[in-house]
Amino acid sequence: MNPLVWYDLSLFVLLFGVGVYVFVTARITSLHKVYFLFHSLMMMWPFCQFAVTLTDNPGLQLFYVLLAFVAVSLLGSGWLLLTLFITGYAERLSNSRLVLLFVPAVIGAIGVVANPWHDFVMPLDGGYIDRAYGPWFWVVMCILVSYFLVSLVIMFRAVFSSKTPVMIKKQVQITLWGIFVLAMFATLDAVLNVLLSRWLPIIPGLTSLGIFLSDLFFVYVIKRYNVFDLVSIAHEDVINTIPYGILVLDENEVIVEVNKASKFFVQRHVGDMWNMEEFLAGVHVEDRVEADLFLNEYRMKKNIFSKIEVIMEQEKAARHFIVQSSPILDAVLIPIGYLLTFQDVSQERFYARTMHRQNETLQERNQALDRIRQELSEANRKLEELVLTDSLTQCYNRRYLTQHLNHEVLTNLQYKTPFSLMLLDIDHFKAINDHYGHVIGDEVLVRTAEAVRGSVRSTDILTRYGGEEFMIYLPHTEHDLAIEIAERVRKAVESNRMAVNHEIGSVSITMSIGILSIEDFTYEDVPEDGEGYLIQLFDAVDKALYQAKQKGRNRVEHGVLERGVM
C-alpha cells in the first residue's frame, strides 16, 4: 500500500478532532447545526479518499468515490448556507428559498450516484484507484464553482456595505481567506490530478488539505468572535427584540452597535458619526432650555441618566420620542462611550391630547350647564315675580301679600312687634276711566304706584290689592308713625300731576287711606288660625278706608280691630 494514502486518513482524523472540539465547547443553535453539517461534508472527502485505497473490490471502490463526490456536491450548498449565517443574511432565508438553495447540489449528487454510462467516473486498470472523469464531473464542478461565486458575492457585499457591523465584517474577511485557500487547493487538484493526469503523477490529498486549512479559518472565526456563544446570541436577540431604538457609541461618538428597532427612529448605521447637537437641531423640542440642559449633561459625560422629549416628522405625521442618554463607564468609572435609547411615545401623547380635549369639552359643557342653571334660576325668579307681582304697576300682588303676612303677622304677635297696615284707594277712579279711557286709567295707576313707592320706606311692602286699591305693610311701625307715613303718601299723590297727552293736559288725583295699627298686645294672643286672623285685619283696615271715603275722601282714617272675634 502506498504510504501516501495514510495522508488522507490523518487529515480525516484531524478534521474529526476539530469537529469534536467545536461540538464539546459550543452550545447547539441553528448556526451550530449548519456548521456541523458543513463540517461533516468536509470530513467525508478525505475519509472516502482513504477508504478507496483499502480495498481491491471495484464495487467498494466505486462506492467510496461516489460517496466522496456526493459530499463534495453538497459541500457547496453547505458552504453557502454557512456564509448566509455568518454575514447575518440568514434572517431573509424563507423555507422556499432554503429548498431552492439545495436543489442544484441535490441534482449534482443524484447524477454522481446514478453515474449513467460512466458519464461521471470510469475505472482504469480494472479499479477506481486510478480513474477517469466524464462530463458529469464537470457539471458537478460548475455547480460547486457557482456556489462559491455566490458565497463570494454575498461576502463582498457584506464587507463593503455600510450597514454591516464592524465585527461581522472582520468575520467575513477571515472567512474569505478560507475560501481562497480551499479554492486554490481544489483548483490545483483538478488541474494536476485530472487535466494533467496523463503527463504527471497523481498527487493525493490536495483537496483534503484545502478543506482542512479552510476549516481552520472557520474555527478561528467561531472562537475569536464567539459566533457560537449562546449568551452573546441571546444578548443580540434580546436587544433586537426590544421595541426601543438602541445606539451604542464609542468615546469618539462613532456608532459601534445598533439594534433593529433603531431604524424606525433614526437612519444611522454602524461606523457613522453621531452628532447630538446636530440631531437636536433637526428635531422640534418644545422647551429649548430643556434641550440645552440635556446637551450639557450629554457633553459632561458624567454618570447621569438624561432624557428629553423630541418631535420628529415621519411620513407627514409628527411623532413624539423620548431620547435617553447615559454614559458607558469602565471599571474605574472612566467614560468610554454612550448608550442612547429612543422610545416612541406618540400613542401616549395622542391619548393625553384626547383626554385633554375631552376634559376641555367636559369643562365647556359644565360651564354651559352652569349658564343654563343660572338662566333657569333667573327665569324662575322672573316667573316667581310674574306670579307674585302685578304686571302693570310692578308692585307685589295680593297673593304675595297674603303669603308674606300669613307668617309674619303671627311672628309679630309672638314677639310683640308692632306693625301697621295701610289700605289706599284712588278717589273717583271710575270717572277717570269713563272720561279719559282705560289707557289713561292704567297710566294713572302706574304713576300713582310710583308716587306711593317714593314716599314709603324700603322695608315697607307695597302691593296692588285690587283694581285701584293699594295696600302697604309697615313692619315695626306704631300708630303715630303710620299716620305720618300715610299723610306723606297722601300729599305725594295729591301733588303728583300726571301729563297724559298734549290735548288733555295733566290729571291730578287724590287718595283715601285707611290705617290699622297693632301695637297693644295686652289683649292679643297668638291665634291658631293665622289665615282667619289676617282676614280680620284686612276687614278692619277696609272699614277704616270706607270711613275716609264717607268723610269726604282725600283723607286718612284709623281703624280698630274688634276684640274677641277670631
TrEMBL record:
For this protein, the record's InterPro entries field holds: Diguanylate_Cyclase, GGDEF_dom, HisKA_7TM, Nucleotide_cyclase, Rev_trsase/Diguanyl_cyclase
Q: Name one GO cellular component term.
A: plasma membrane
This protein's UniProt keywords: Coiled coil, Membrane, Transmembrane, Transmembrane helix
Residue span(s) of domain GGDEF: 417-561
- Tell me the CDD domains matching this sequence: GGDEF
Q: Where are the transmembrane segments?
A: 6-24, 36-55, 61-86, 98-117, 137-160, 172-196, 202-222
GO MF annotation list: diguanylate cyclase activity
* Source taxonomy: Bacteria, Bacillati, Bacillota, Bacilli, Bacillales
Q: Which residues form a coiled coil?
A: 355-389
Q: What is this protein called?
A: Diguanylate cyclase
Source organism, top-level taxon? Bacteria
Q: Does the keyword Lipid metabolism apply?
A: no
Q: Name one GO biological process term.
A: cell adhesion involved in single-species biofilm formation
SUPFAM superfamilies the UniProt entry points to? Nucleotide cyclase
Q: Per its UniProt record, what Pfam families does this chain match?
A: GGDEF, HisKA_7TM
